[in-house]
Amino acid sequence: MAKGTRLKNKKCKTCRALRYRLLIPILRGKNTPKITARGVMVGLAVAFTPTVGAQMAICAAIWAVVRAVRPSWNFNLIVACGWTWITNFFTVPPIYYGFLITGRLMLAPEDGLYGYSDFMGELNMILATETTGFESFWVYMVRMVELWGLPMVIGSIPWSIVLGWVGYFWSLRVIENFRTSQRQHLIEH
User: Fold this and answer.
1) Measured between alpha carbons, how far is 183 from 102 in angstroms, rounded to an integer?
2) pLDDT at 115
3) Which residues contact 150 (CB under 8 A, 6 or more apart)?
4) Is 75's pLDDT higher than 90?
5) Which residue from 3, 5, 42, 95 puts its CA 20 to 30 A from 179's CA?
């Protein structure tokens, strides 16, 4: 098989997986469009924090608090958890680097910005630590906080807020348009 064909097949498989894991659940959901769109918003807001490995648990905790404190502001937990998958083992390095650079720009440090190769070298050293399960999450988080701490956390805040809201408005529009076209299709047939 030619290299271009393999690459095209990988892209098709990735697009298909994203479609079935992220788009189809929001289109076929039984909830109101706002509840589903809130799920996308919460999922993206949590996804764009430096908490990979605990994001679905964080979504569940937010869902439990919302249900207890303000049940009228419900969101789709399954959709929220699904949208946290945007950040994963493969996408974390550039996303975390973006958090770090954004944080450093916001805090205006004297030591300047941070090169991507330096960041990747330190990240690879952290990930090379041999641990398993929850212990690995804890070890990785402690080490990242020691190295990058406040700039990374501060830098994630604007990304989390902006992408959460963009996800909300985008998904709300997509869901409403889909349901309108479904109703039109039923009326015509």
Assistant:
1) 44
2) 82
3) 103, 107
4) yes
5) 42
Report the C-alpha gap between 35 and 32 in whole angstroms.
5
- CA 93 vs CA 97, 117, 157: distances in Å: 6, 11, 17
Dump pLDDT digits (tens) for 35-60.
999 999 999 999 999 888 889 999 99
Three-class SS string for the chain?
CCHHHHHHHHHHHHHHHHHHHHHHHHHHCCCCHHHHHHHHHHHHHHHCCCCCCCHHHHHHHHHHHHHHHCHHHCCCHHHHHHHHHHCCCCCHHHHHHHHHHHHHHHHCCCCCCCCHHHHHHHHHHHHCCCCCHHHHHHHHHHHHHHHCHHHHHHHHHHHHHHHHHHHHHHHHHHHHHHHHHHHHHHHHC
| Length of the chain counted residue by residue | 189
b/e map 29-55, b = 16+ CB within 10 Å: bebebbbbbbbbbbbbbbbbbbbbbbb
Q: Per the structure block, which two tokens stand in for 139?
A: 């070890």
What pTM, to 2 d.p., does this model score?
Answer: 0.79
CA distances from residue 187 to 100, 182, 184 in whole angstroms, order as listed: 52, 9, 5
Q: Which of 79, 84, 75 is nearest to 25 (CA)?
A: 79
